[in-house]
Design goal:
Layout: E1 5-15, E2 24-26, E3 29-32, E4 36-37, H1 50-55, E5 65-69, H2 70-78, E6 92-95, E7 107-110, E8 114-121, H3 127-131, H4 135-138, E9 140-142, E10 148-150, E11 154-160, E12 162-164, E13 169-173
Parallel strand pairs: 5-6
Antiparallel strand pairs: 1-2, 1-6, 1-13, 3-4, 3-12, 5-11, 7-8, 7-13, 8-11, 9-10
């Protein structure tokens, strides 16, 4: 193991076979190594997000799996937004693990088999405001230096496949130091 670990749990798993904003909660999902979530529109070795395909359809898919922390949904509820698991397009909703503070290259062990390597931060787009007006501003913030803080989760690639279910453990294995902070991917 390469250093400290942190623990959390899977709160929900979601997928959608068609391109759209939200995903549908499932009793389980199967992660496929090098591809993403089986049956999800964003699974594939090359980019699947429509805006990325329009730029260059041959670039590698560094956004195979989208993970959000459940605490964000609670924060949004406190601001008057009604956001349920899958509504923000995430494949895996976690609890108890601060995804946004993980360094690039962190390996998330989901359940008994699956491993996802974190590639970066999700860059929220205007579709969020189309889903609920004002939501885009709520998932963006500013740090103490005025820098933009993206709170809409992290993206990753599947290193090892496996089935992931709500209630499964999530263990974060940090990469060797020096750690690189997450950037938009």
């Amino acid at each position: 193991m390469n250093g400290p670990t942190w623990m959390g749990a899977v709160a929900a798993v979601n997928l959608s076979p068609v391109h759209g904003f939200s995903k549908v909660p499932q009793p389980q999902v199967r992660l496929l190594a090098g591809l993403g979530v089986k049956g999800d529109a964003h699974a594939g070795r090359t980019v699947r997000h429509r805006s990325r395909v329009a730029q260059n359809p041959d670039q590698p898919n560094r956004r195979q799996v989208h993970l959000i922390h459940a605490e964000l949904l609670e924060e949004l509820a406190g601001q008057g937004f009604a956001v349920r698991p899958g509504d923000l397009g995430e494949n895996v909703l976690t609890r108890g693990l601060d995804l946004l503070t993980l360094p690039t290259g962190t390996r998330l062990h989901l359940g008994g088999e699956a491993v996802v390597e974190v590639t970066g931060l999700r860059n929220p787009c205007g579709q969020i405001d189309a889903f609920q007006p004002g939501l885009l501003a709520a998932v963006l913030g500013r740090d103490e230096h005025g820098g933009l803080v993206r709170k809409a989760g992290v993206m990753g690639v599947v290193l090892t496949g496996g089935v992931v279910r709500p209630g499964d453990s999530v263990r974060a294995e940090l990469p060797p130091e020096p750690h690189r902070p997450l950037e938009r991917v």
